Amino acid sequence: MELLKERIRKDGVIKEGNVLKVDNFLNHQMDIGLFNEIGREFKRRFADERIDKILTIEASGIGIAAIAAQYFGVPVVFAKKAQSINLDGTMLSAPVESFTHKRRYEVIVASRFLRPGENILIIDDFLANGCAAMGLCQIVEAAHARVAGIGIVIEKGFQCGGKLLREKGLRVESLAIVDGMDAATQTVQFRD
């Protein structure tokens, strides 16, 4: 998706440790026009799949998933990173380690929101080591639903996440795959 790649080149900031900061338009301040194009592109890429719900993880995936859901005409469910008094009933959970935050979470979804036999599209902003996507897949499987695909806005192709998910037979559609980046020159190399 050229529009996204251009925005990463223009507004992305590369930090040491393979961190690509895109908080100016993706995961802190959100460019809704860009999100509309991202949602439209996910719908195009998954047009051959029946999607019943979109699943994401708080917090950065929620805005993207909500805009994309308009194109699919389905609800969004998001995995929470903490138990609260508002959560009741049977819960599905999975461990997730965040590359950016260097923290381990137990993500939680109320089982009533993911029904057996449903086709679930997982959407997230980044794919690095694949921990968040794997955790969400575990939750979908525990619900006896089906992972119809995984939509990623930015994949770090030089990290193992995409490879691991694809080797498991999961369909991963990434809108921009970064093959390399240099903090000193602030340059990003994309896979074609």
Automatic annotation (TrEMBL):
GO cellular component terms, A-Z: cytoplasm
Positions that bind xanthine: L20, N27, K156
Tagged with keyword Cytoplasm: yes
Pfam families: Pribosyltran (PF00156)
Catalytic reactions on record: XMP + diphosphate = xanthine + 5-phospho-alpha-D-ribose 1-diphosphate
Protein's cellular compartments: Cytoplasm
Keywords in alphabetical order: Cytoplasm, Glycosyltransferase, Purine salvage, Transferase
InterPro entries in alphabetical order: PRTase-like (IPR029057), PRTase_dom (IPR000836), Pur/Pyrimidine_PRTase (IPR050118), Xanthine_PRibTrfase (IPR010079)
Binding sites annotated in the UniProt record for 5-phospho-alpha-D-ribose 1-diphosphate: A128, N129, G130, C131, A132
Subunit annotation: Homodimer.
Protein family per UniProt: Belongs to the purine/pyrimidine phosphoribosyltransferase family. Xpt subfamily.
Name this polypeptide is given: Xanthine phosphoribosyltransferase
